[in-house]
Structure formats: structure tokens, C-alpha cells
Amino acid sequence: MTRSALLALPLALSLGIGMAQAQTTEVTIAHQDMIVPFRVSQAAGAVEKATGYKINWKMFGGGGDVIKAMASGEVPIGEVGSSPATAAAAQGLDVQIVWIIDDINDAEQLVVTSKSGIAKLTDLKGKKIATPIASTAHYQLLFALSKSGINPRDVQIMNMRPPEIAAAWERGDIDGTFIWDPVLAKAKAAGGKVILTASDVAKMGAPTFDALMVNRAWAEKNKAFVTALVKEMAMADATFKANKASYTKDSEQAKTIAKIVGAKPEDVPATLNDYGFPTAAQQASNAWLGGGAQSGVAKAMANTATFLKEQGRITDIPKDFGKFVNPEYAAAAAK
Predict the structure, then answer these.
(1) Is residue 126 packed enough to be buried (19+ CB in 10 Å), middle (13-18) or exposed (0-12)?
(2) Residue 288 sits in which domain range?
């Protein structure tokens, strides 16, 4: 090696180290089309600014698809409903729920066409009802049918993603759908009649929610990032609840949310009010994520698993759902 090369070596090494340190960590996050306050922060790049990470936001058509992506290693973080989250746990995936994105309340509904002749649940026999299989909407449909003494096999339950449901509704190919906004709003605007809501199903004994689920090992290695993400979600919810009157159909918030999820801005305010958004302190408590196997979320997952096994949707039930729930990030956000 020449003297000039030797002199250049320290500089090259220092530049190489500097470039390595400057490399940005990249992560793909699976999101869905739920109309929630965090979409405003998502559009503004709030998490990227807080963490320095490069985030690829990838939208999926349902929780089942998100779970498949997490199982394959395509994504380490995703938005999932309580039913697919339970299915993921039953499959033995190394995952944890770290945040409740929303308490579904009335945000998911069973709506039928005006020509369907359906006025009550028992009228669903022989009818074509579309819903994303393995979603919370699908779980609620099965649960409501079971509670009403109706064999789900007597109903033509069709597996469709939200965009496919919207198209099938327009063509008149289905009699109804159990779905969420923006498709729900489109169906109701086209004359759809609401037969059942998520809050009705909750009263029957099956409360549902949407959650942020992480690959446990990845989250352990990227704890600061997950903490920052949860804090941004908590702040977005708090901002909405403190300023509900400003989230009008003409507001920038409504337009931003609508653009991300494919909704109409005029549908955003009502949908936001259909959901419940627990605070970070509430989520860290036993009512939601705190308390291990005795947490509200773990108990809900256990009940969901029992029903899903009865329906043949899963084969095994984990002994302890507490290990799939982690309150530490919500607790950090509450400080």
C-alpha cells in the first residue's frame, strides 16, 4: 500500500463510519382504512419527525391480510381488529397488542339493500352478505347469527375486501354487508338500511376494538420507536377529543383523513364520533392493556378465541392471552 493510500485510509474509515451512522432505519407499517384521528399525524409525517425512521405506510384491505403480512415477516407493525389479533395469537405468532386504536362502538354495522327484503337477523337466511373474512365485522356477524339461533351456513357469507364490497353493492350482487366506513357510508347513502351495529353485538357479549399489533422481538429492538409511535397516536386522539367542533366536513383534518382512507370528507366527522378513543392512562389500566391475563383486552381475546374455535375458525386456544398484551407503551405515553 502506498503512503498516500495509507494517509487516505483513516479518512475513508471515518467517512464510512459516518455514513453508517447516518443510515436511516426503515420500517413498513400496515394500516387499514379506518377513519381515526391518527391519520392526520400520519399524513404530516409526525412519527418520522419524532424518530428519524423512514416509514413505508402500506394500506391493507383487512386484518386477515395484515396478519398474513406479519406472519411472513413483510411488516413488523400493523393495525388489526380484535378478531384477527386473536387469530394471530392462536396461530402462535410472536406478537403483542401495544395500543388500542379505537373502541369500535357503532363504527361497524350490518347494512342491507332496500331490495333485499331483510328487516331482521332471521331474514338473512339464504341471503348474500359480504364481509372481509377474519375481520372484526365477520366475527360480529357470526356471533350475532349464533346468538339469534341462526346457523351461519344458512347465510351466503361472501369474503370480500372493502373496495370489492363497494363495487358489488353498486352492481346489486349482494344483499348486504357488515362493514365499516368509508364503504358503510357509501352503502347507507345508496339507501342501505342498518340492521345491526357493533354496539348491539357488544351488548350481546362480544365487544370489539382495533389495535396496534407489533412483532414482539422487533419491538424490543426498536422500543424507542414504538414508544414514540404510541405517543403520537395518543396525542392525535387527545387533540381530536379536545377539538371535536373543529373537525367539520370542510376542515383540513377531514380532508386529510378522507384522502388517506378513500372516504368523502363529509363522512369523516360522524364516523369519528362513532368510535371510542381510550386515553393512554385508561389503556394502561386493567380495563384495557394492564393486568396481564386479567386485562380487559386479554379477556376479550380469550372469549373471542372460544367462539372462533366453536365456529371452526381456529384449532387451538392459547392458555394465557396476557403474553399477547403489553401495557408499557401506553403507560409511557400517559406520563
Answers:
(1) exposed
(2) 25-103+209-334
Contacts of 5 (CB under 8 A, 6+ apart): none
Could you write out the DSSP letters of every residue in 215-267? Answer: EHHHHHHTHHHHHHHHHHHHHHHHHHHH-GGG--TTSHHHHHHHHHHT--GGG
Q: Which residues pair with 59 in a beta bridge?
A: 31
Q: Report residues of the chain scoring pLDDT below 50.
A: 1-22
Residues 78 and 192 in one domain: no
18 lies in a domain?
no
How many structural domains are present in the chain? Answer: 2
- Whether a cis peptide bond, with omega within 30° of 0, leads into 182 is yes
What pTM does this model have?
Answer: 0.87
The three cell numbers locating residue 156: 351466503
Q: Tell me the three cell numbers of residue 290.
A: 394492564
Please report, for the domain that includes residue 75, its CATH number: 3.40.190.10
- Model confidence pLDDT, tens digit, residues 135-186: 999 999 999 999 999 999 999 999 999 999 999 999 999 999 999 999 999 9
Q: Looking at the domain assignment, is residue 190 inside a domain?
A: yes
**pLDDT tens track for 212-230:** 999 999 999 999 999 999 9
